[in-house]
Amino acid sequence: MQLPVWFEVGSFVALGIILLLDLLLVVRRPHEPSMKEAGLWVAFYVALALAFAGAMFAFAGPEYGGQFVAGWVTEYSLSIDNLFVFIIIMARFSVPRKYQQEVLMVGIIIALILRGIFIMLGAIVIEQFSWVFYIFGAFLLWTAWKQAKDEGEDEEDKENALIAKIRKVIPMSEKFDGGKLRTVVDGKKVFTPMLIVFVTIGMTDLLFAVDSIPAIFGLTQSAFIVFTANIFALMGLRQLYFLLGGLMNRLVYLKHALSIILAFIGVKLVLHAMHVNELPFINGGQHIEWAPEIPTYVSLAVIVGTIIIAVIASLISSAAQQAKLDARLEEDARKSRTGVDADVE
Q1: How far apart are the first and last CA of the chain?
Q2: Is 150 helix (H, G, I), strand (E, B) or coil?
Q3: What letter would DSSP give residue 276?
Q4: I need a labelling partner for 222 at 20 to 30 A (CA). Which of 141, 180, 293, 296 fits?
Q5: Rounded to whole angstroms, how far apart are CA atoms 41 and 53?
Q6: What does each C-alpha distance from 111 to 12, 107, 114, 131, 133 come to in angstroms?
Q7: Cα–Cα distance between 60 and 56 in angstroms, integer?
């Protein structure tokens, strides 16, 4: 892919400025956005991603433009699924809704840093060792199977061992003090529960990066596309958190759709690994020519089609209509409506 240097540099500078302005807005005016405000921001970031996709089609051609769209849709879908975990974390630690935007913004910054590291490492490994696609493919197939089984949700209520140790070692207050990390209790400086929230969000972001980076490398080997698709997937995520809210519980088929997408990309990675095979114990170290390379437009059609079908099926499903919110989410929503956040000044 040959892109003008000014386009690549300009893209990162523009995206960096937008993220910085977004962060400053949260820091200077912590608040819970209205549905209208959240909706406008989400629409703005989606439009921005589509405009960037148009620029990719214009400057890099339909192949790489399609790779960006496929990567962005996949990462965005995975991010939407991960929002439910963020909702549980916020409710579990009773984070005042006024400061949830700040927590989400910190989580997004951590995610960008972690994904940047994974992307650089992944690009280096892929360039040197083509057989890594076998590992990525097998990992995604295992992740898809695990996602389809829908296991591990009960683990959300179990406190991580690291977090439990932090509570024992570090002096910590029982209540939040606004959005502060440290506060004064009985004349002593101690940390607030916000520290635990940041640690939990950071560890969750790490797990998400492990799942999502191999998935997008199955759609493109361009580090530029991988990183920009991840940035656009994370931009507007905090507004989407407030916009979707309880709707997350109604998207009953989203996890199944994502398991299908991950399995599809896993198969695509394995086929690609076979096509460029260099392992001596497989086909004598020769490329397996009959292994097909799945075109980008097919990948894009499968990904977008699966998401659309899952969303429509979820919205008309009787199971979704009867779905009840987690008790913690209902309490969080009640606080939002009545305006009685436990915000300690």
Answers
A1: 53
A2: coil
A3: T
A4: 141
A5: 18
A6: 16, 6, 5, 27, 23
A7: 5
Q: At which residue do the structure tokens 């790779």 appear? A: 67
Q: Quick: pLDDT tens for 153-177.
A: 444 444 556 666 776 777 777 777 7
Global pTM? 0.74
> Who's near 201: CB < 8 A, 6+ residues apart?
86, 89, 103, 106, 107, 110
Its sign, for the CA torsion 42, 44, 45, 50, is positive
Distance (Å) of CA 311 to CA 31, 76, 300, 314, 344: 30, 14, 17, 5, 39
- Smallest CA-to-CA distance from 253 within 91, 77, 89, 87 is with 77
Q: How far apart are CA 116 and CA 101, in angstroms?
A: 22
Residue 239, helix vs strand vs coil: helix
Q: What's the angle, vertex CA 341, arms to CA 337 and CA 344, rounded to 5? A: 165
Q: What is the pLDDT of residues 262-307, one digit of tens each?
A: 888 889 888 888 877 778 878 777 878 888 888 888 888 988 898 8
